[in-house]
Design brief:
The chain has 76 residues and is an all-alpha fold. It is 83% helix and 0% strand. The termini are close together.
Length: 76
């Protein structure tokens, strides 16, 4: 049972890391860098929740990696 949970944790970790990476890339590249020189830069403020979702997803993915490694290492 522990091996199954470790496998599910690793799949969830990959999904969370992809979502986190895409969200952080969107904010940093498309909003912060893409709006240089534009007069309306309000997306720097309104896009911050997307950045926070990305950071939260990436941290969750890292925690799930630790859970998966421990599950595979100590599973029987």
């Amino acid at each position: 049972m522990r091996i199954v949970l470790a496998g599910l944790s690793s799949v969830g970790a990959v999904v969370f890391l992809i979502v986190g990476g895409v969200a952080m890339k969107w904010y940093l590249w498309d909003v912060a860098i893409g709006q240089v020189g534009e007069s309306d830069r309000s997306m720097l403020f309104w896009g911050i929740p997307i950045l926070f979702i990305g950071v939260f997803a990436a941290v969750t993915g890292l925690v799930l990696i630790v859970v998966a490694i421990r599950g595979f290492r100590f599973g029987s």
